[in-house]
Amino acid sequence: MTKRSPLSDPQLYVVVFIGGAIGTCVRYLLGLAIPATAGGFHFGTLSANLLACFVYAGLSAYLAQADWIRPRKRELVNRGAGMGVCGGLSTMSTLALEGFTGILGGQAGQALLYLLVSVVLGLLVAFAGVRCADRLATGHRAERTAAAGNPGDSGSDSSDSSNPVSSAEQEARQ
């Protein structure tokens, strides 16, 4: 069976477009609600980027394990909520512009600190999102197994809590 190209799927364009519009509106509203400080920290942009990192990493990790959700539905949710909403919410270009403007404005130390904090916190919250998603997926899998009358899952479970590497992290390494 040949796999169809996502570029020829108009439904994917629609969910990404709608998700992107939603994410962009949320980012704009966060920018209005959380103004930048005089010290060069743009907390609206930082909040939007961190939220997007957490949600997208968590969503991707959860959907990668959610074999109980139909593949087409997983694809649409991943593209619409992940790529669309989180992509519209996060903004590398604004982060770069704010850092560059700070450097040109004579606040190089503060601007570089802002950029460093943004990247480090982004990685940390993405990791937290993956860990939360792993716990949710493991719980969901256990509920489904118990409901099916199988108290133990005899299959290999890569999200086992004794394994320090999550299944999403394992996939990222491959």
Automatic annotation (TrEMBL):
Under Pfam families, the record lists: CRCB
Q: How is its activity regulated?
A: Na(+) is not transported, but it plays an essential structural role and its presence is essential for fluoride channel function.
Keywords assigned by UniProt? Answer: Cell membrane, Ion channel, Ion transport, Membrane, Metal-binding, Sodium, Transmembrane, Transmembrane helix, Transport
**What GO terms fall under cellular component here?**
plasma membrane
Which GO molecular-function terms appear in the entry? fluoride channel activity; metal ion binding
Membrane-related topology note: Multi-pass membrane protein
Looking up InterPro entries in the UniProt record yields: FluC
On the tree of life, the source organism's domain of life is Bacteria
Residues crossing the lipid bilayer are 12-34, 40-64, 85-105, 111-130
| Record-level GO BP terms | cellular detoxification of fluoride
Composition-biased stretches, type Low complexity, lie in: 146-168
Q: Where does Na(+) bind?
A: 87, 90
Compartments where located: Cell membrane
Catalytic activity of the protein: fluoride(in) = fluoride(out)
Q: Note down the stretches annotated as region Disordered.
A: 143-174
Q: Which HAMAP family does this entry report, sorted A to Z? A: FluC (MF_00454)
Family classification: Belongs to the fluoride channel Fluc/FEX (TC 1.A.43) family.
- State the function annotated in the UniProt record: Fluoride-specific ion channel. Important for reducing fluoride concentration in the cell, thus reducing its toxicity.
Protein name as it appears in the record = Fluoride-specific ion channel FluC
